[in-house]
Amino acid sequence: MIRARQTCVTAVAVLAALAGSPGPAQAEQPPESRLLSTTDDNPLPPGWRIDGEDGTTQLVWRAPKAVPMGDARVEFRTGDRLLGAPKPARDGRTFRLALGETRPERLTDLQVTAAGRRLDAAADDTHRSGSRVARMPARAPANGVDPGRPGSYRTVTGKYDLDPVRLPGFATPVEMTAEVVAPKGATGSRPLALFLHGRHNTCYKPGSEDEVTGDWPCADGYKPIPSHLGYLRDQQLLASQGYVTVSISANGINAQDWEAEDAGAQARSSLVRQHLARWADWTAHRSSAPAVVREAAKADLSHVLLVGHSRGGEGVNRASMDSLYPPPAAEDGYRGPVRWKVRGTVLIGPTIFGQNPVADVPSVTLLPGCDGDVSDLQGEDFVDGTRGISRGTALHSAVYIVGANHNYFNSEWTPGEAVAPARDDFGTDPEEEPDPVCTPGAATRLTAAQQHKAGSTYIAAAARLFLAGDERVRPLLDGSGKRAPSADPARVLTHAVGGRRSGGFLPDGGAKVTGARLCSAIDPDPAVACLDPESLGSSPHFASWETEKETGRSAVDLKWSAPGTAARITPAKPLSLRDSQKLALRVFVPPNTTGTKFDVSVTDSSNRRVTLGSVQVDGLPGSANTASYWAQELRVPLTAAARAGLDLSHVKSLGLTPRSQSGRAWLMDAWGWAPGTSAEKAAALPRVDVGRTIVKEGDSGSRTYRIPVEISGHGNGQVRVYVLDPDSGRAENRLVTVRPGSDAIDVPVEVKGDTVYGDDVQHDIAVKAVRGTVVGKHRGGLTVENDDPEPVITLSPVADRVTEAETLTWRLSVDAPTAVDIWTPVRVLPVTEGAELSTKDVDPQWLKDWSGDVPDPERPLSDANLWVWLNIPPGSTSVDFVVPTVRDQVAEPTESMRLAQTDRNAEPLPDRPVLTGTVLDKP
Asked: 32 pLDDT exceeds 60?
């Protein structure tokens, strides 16, 4: 961490561990670096530093080895606060984030995360109880219909490769390449399933074991990684059952989405709709279609299923949104008419950075229990985030697959099957303790073949329910506790919202809780947060978003040390369960626990209370590396309430009475349940998109700008707007009612002009739907660009000829004060003639503070890894670099040292002088 010094001049040293490395000239930057204050003993963690590039102050982290290109977004955090998403360098190890208004002294508890997983530290498994052994969930009874069995249709396979398309914000055109697998000889039009892969490396060098890149197009000697071919088995199963399938390539987006503020969600939507538009053309004019499309059964564009893996999941979610609620034209890469109807989506280990699911389009989300990429299982928000938003009739299902990782749903991301280098994303470090749940070979871990088979089965289940309307497969998806034998031996659990559920005991919206604690999903205060930071693993229900604290994401936390005390949830007004057969609760308990039991009761408005029955739940297999705090669906019949004459039209409270001796549980919600699904009809809703405006600060005066927000669509609804402070990152929020064409989200920003050099500053907001709205681009704002010239930095001697025991001094200066910290590196170089100062010629504490080194064995000072970052704070014009020498009793010749300004790779700047300091022997 960095603590601010209270003097007007500070100096910070960075340790550059160059020994044993190819040297700074051969690396993106020195392999290891850390900041060290000359007055504090609180260095930045290993691998971190602050420097400047292109005139901006940047926080830099260098990983000990390359971070594989994946779907989870790499983020810098200080504790619970999100600093931002850094830009990756080509080396795959270096990540840079412009600090803007954030002062270095605020950079405490630095962390690098991706989907909640620490990249800069191993997970802490020390809190795992030795008595809690991961156990495989019991095998569920078989469903009457198994969608994993191949159908009777013969299939045809082929590709098409059209002219690439240009998408807004992407400099390089994106390919229009796809693989088609379709039934051959089928009569009539057949539903269409479109697959979109996630974010992965784009190119590989044939014959190599690990040479992959994120370039597009591929360099000479490299070939495209065919990620879109990784779903061929899924396509073949669906095609044999009568569905036309197409899997599209998105390498061009993967290579460029790091530059997109929404991580490429809108671009992926545009690409999906570009392909759907071509299929609509080919359906109308078969003669214009590629050969494989003409040979296949005719596609029915009124029945479309979109299947997306990882960032592809977020992309197809946005495509279904954009098909119902058009996005801003300037952001969209498809401008034509919508000639298709999306009946549902399948989202495989998806990202959802915006936490903006489409409430009125049914979905099935596959959550891999051993996901090592999108490891927080944030895709759960495709279920949780739809509650209360719209009609509530679309079925949204979560399918938790114990022992599945992220990559093996795609055979081109699977070692031994892929043409390019591939890996197990969960990964195992031979120097660490094996994960008890997810290490390959563990009883709970699936093989690649088992995982892919399970994935195919549940994709087919969604197709059969959403496209064919076959209610017989619904129990596989909606929490009814049935299994598909084709997915064996995988243990698969499901829960759902929507469908024919009614009522809804939701912790949010004014519910009162007694006998338990109403907790917040996202809050830095452990006393308020639902899950303690010391808990084993994490919960998909509490995946983080843009802010360190959120309003309106709650659960009920039950904790007891003796049975019998009821927890009671009372919504703001009574609910109706009149048309329901059962009460369905979504409850989770700590991983690896067993035998948690509750009695479930309801009370009507006349205070008649009836116990409906008892439920029991066991924890999922979990470790410190898994997101296993996941709610299971528990159902109790309402027959006891009906027999007792309870008024099910006016149920005012829900009670949970623990019957196990002690324990912990969390209630996400409870609903009246009836079998079947409802006819979905998308509501006419307003859509909110946050834009970005870039302005110059100017030299004088002040001007007020407003953050651009477009509200389109129909009707009115509510969103919560978070206004993010550019310095602290903390957010203020307010509930806003929005209507199309209105300026309801009005966030003014005052910009004051000056002639002082500073960093660009982002004034951002983030928006989340609350009721009756959809949100497209959820984050944006106003960027104020510095328009003042960067200061001229010079290094000059103050005392460069001294006697032993005196201090060498150089001064780093700027020609004018600035509004930001100026960080500049200097490096001690070998002398070119004469004797060089040694590690024993300088103060040993100084050497330790500035280089982390010790005097012994004695060696030239330039071998002590002295690469130092000096900081000139705002308002100051200089900082001194001092080298205190020591007197010894040895007669020595005159000695010297050389000091040079360097670039961020520790290479001396060619246009700046190398300065020499001389130390004379004391007579």
From this structure: no
